[in-house]
Amino acid sequence: METHLDHIDYWDAHALLEWQVELGVSEPIGEQPVNRYDMPAAAPKPAPQAAAQAAAQARGNTPPVRPVAMAEVEVDGIGEAARVARAATTLEDLRDAIATFEHCALKRGAHNLVFCDGTPKARVMVIGEAPNRDEDREGKPFVGRAGALLDRMFAAIGLDRTSPDGQNALYLAPALPWRPPENREASAEELAMLTPFLIKHIELADPDVIVIMGNLACQALTGRAGITRLRGAWQEVSGKPAMPMTHPAYLLRTPAAKREAWADLLEIQARLRTLS
After folding, report:
1. Could you give the CA distance from residue 40 to residue 82 in angstroms, rounded to a whole number?
2. pTM of the model
3. Is the residue at 201 inside a domain?
4. In this structure, are residues 90 and 206 in contact, taking their beta carbons and an 8 Å threshold?
5. Residue 44 included in any domain
6. What is the pLDDT of residue 2?
């Protein structure tokens, strides 16, 4: 019996497939259902070589062949990530290392690697959350409405992601390089596996001040959650001063929190002046 799917065009099929990938589907299935309870009418005939070998064994002419078990090698993804991250000596090396890292399942469901935006060697490095849908599609952190708000916030203290001058520039990176499917929270294992890359990213970018934006970034870099409690109090990350702040996406949902965000920005501005 025909259904509307029999007449689906190319672009509808493409959209349906893309939707399935976003839901986390990673393997295709056959077109026809398979009844696993069906038994074959007759046992399949052994191949001639196998039959001859079985007959020889029955006569006692050859020793039985023991099957060789293939041992599965379990890879320590967290340890491998740490090893690969340590080997990177430039930001380009690190980006390539993340792009070719195959031990995190998040990579298989993402459209793009989200690595950075802004000016490397800027005095301020902003660490955001995991990529959202827009960031995943564009391959850049802090885009869309939240990105526009972030740009306005830092412009108020004289910092701009597009500035070529490191003194007045911003360097932006996500806590995770790949978007979790359906915007779910990253698991503890995923976060632990990808944090070595983030720590190395900070080391290679070498900012004067780190801004930790959002709960996930706070967990990755300080081991603590609760950004609304932690914001506004200086931390130390990789030997550098780090200011936790609420994420621009949160500020869009909770405009009353913008007053606290402004206070945090003034703290960052004052610390930059002190470090100068």
Report:
1. 50
2. 0.74
3. yes
4. no
5. no
6. 46
Q: Which domain holds residue 183?
A: 78-275
Find the largest Cα–Cα distance for the chain: 91
* Listed residue (205, 208, 265) closest to 241, CA to CA: 208
- Does some domain include residue 28? no
Confidence at 74, pLDDT banded by 50, 70, 90: confident
Burial class (CB in 10 A: 0-12, 13-18, 19+), 223: exposed
CA distances from 177 to 106, 181, 187, 197, 255 (A): 9, 13, 14, 9, 28
The amino acid at residue 73 is V
**From 56-65, 107-116, 121-130, 177-186, the region with the lowest mean pLDDT:** 56-65
- At residue 17's C-alpha, the angle toward residues 14 and 18, to 5°, is 85
Q: Is residue 165 part of a domain?
A: yes
CB 132 within 8 A of CB 144: yes
- 129-156 residue pLDDT tens: 999 999 999 999 999 999 999 999 999 9
Which residues, at least 6 apart from 264, have a Cβ–Cβ distance to it below 8 Å? Answer: 231, 232, 243, 245
CATH number at residue 240: 3.40.470.10
Q: 242's torsion region: left (phi>0), alpha (psi -120 to 50) or beta?
A: beta
CA 180 to chain centre: 7
DSSP for residue 240: E
Number of domains in the chain: 1
